[in-house]
Structures are given as C-alpha cells and as structure tokens.
C-alpha cells in the first residue's frame, strides 16, 4: 500500500519546490478550501491562454489539499474537468474545493475556478481514495453556494 508523506515539494502547494505554484489554502472544518492563483505567462499553452493541464492541476489540488488539511490522507483516482472559458495569464483565479460525499475510504469532491467577477472558468470533480489512517470524523458536506 502507498503511504502518503508530504515533504514540502508538492508541485502545486510545496513551499520548497523552486518551480512550483506555491498555492496557499484556507480550509474550513466543514470541508471547504479556498485559494487564489495568479497564472503567469509561463503557464500558458497558447499565447494569452493558460494551459488547461495547469487549470486541472489547481482544481485537483483544491480538492485534495482540503482532505489532507482535515486529516484525511487521500489521493485522486478519478478526475473530470469542464472548461467553461479560457483563463488569461495575469488574471487571478479564485479556487474552491468541497466535499460532496464521504463514504469512509472513498470521498467524492468537487472544485471550481472563477474570476473575481464570479464568472466560472472551470469545474472539477474527483473520486479520492484514503490511503492509510484517517481521522474518524466523517467530513460534513459543504453548504450549497449562494
């Protein structure tokens, strides 16, 4: 069995990774995490368009980092993303991840990326599997967005 151990080199959130994104999250006890990511020019695929794989990365991180912070060592085993519009380097993306269903060893999560005006850029949904011991408390389902 894989044991999940953090060493601060995670590409998305690791502070020691010199080429990482260095995302910092706020996580709430009821299963919601939030961060802001400002993509840089080197994060583009086409000129003026952020690479979709990096958007997928930050959506996934919003979901899994939340679980880690809540004492649940889990990893993504299935991931889906819907791009609603392209993202532009230099424009902040506001990311949020939340728990949809906690079934013990399997947890369903979702995330979204929005611009400051609230317009939706992308959504993500994932199935995560717990690897190792987790806190015994079931994760609450996040309240619906207003």
List descriptors.
mainly beta; Thiol Ester Dehydrase, Chain A; 146 residues; 1 helix; single chain; 34% strand
Please characterize this protein's 3D structure:
The chain has one helix at residues 52-69, and strands spanning 26-28, 32-37, 74-83, 93-102, 106-114, 120-130. The chain has 146 residues and is mostly beta strands. The protein has a single domain (26-130), classed as Roll (Thiol Ester Dehydrase, Chain A). Strands 1-2-4-5-6-3 form a six-stranded antiparallel sheet, with helices on one face. The termini are far apart.
SSE diagram, text form:
Elements lengths: L25 E3 L3 E6 L14 H18 L4 E10 L9 E10 L3 E9 L5 E11 L16
Antiparallel strand pairs: 1-2, 2-4, 3-6, 4-5, 5-6
What is this entry, summarized?
With 146 residues, the chain is mostly beta strands. The chain has one helix and six strands. The mean pLDDT is 88.
What top-tier CATH class fits best? Alpha Beta
Query: Alpha-carbon distance between the termini?
Result: 40 Å
The largest sheet has its strands arranged as: 1-2-4-5-6-3
The major beta sheet can be summarized as:
6 strands, antiparallel
Total beta-strand segments: 6
